[in-house]
Amino acid sequence: MKKLNLFIGIFVAALLFSSCSSDNNDNPNTENIIGKWRLSQLIIDNIDQQVSECEKKMTIEVFENGTYTEKDFLYDDDFTECVLYDLVNGTWENLGNSTYKMSGLDTPSLKVTFEGNKFIAEYTEALGGMTFAIKTIFIADEDVVPDPIIGNWKLVQGFKNGEEDELSECDLMETFEFLEDGFLLEKEFEYNDTSTECVQIQSNTKIWKNIGNSIYILYEISDESEEELTITFENDKMTVELLMEEEGVTYMAKLVFNRVT
Question: Residue 91, class by beta-carbon neighbours within 10 Å (0-12 exposed, 13-18 middle, 19+ buried)?
Answer without folding.
Answer: middle
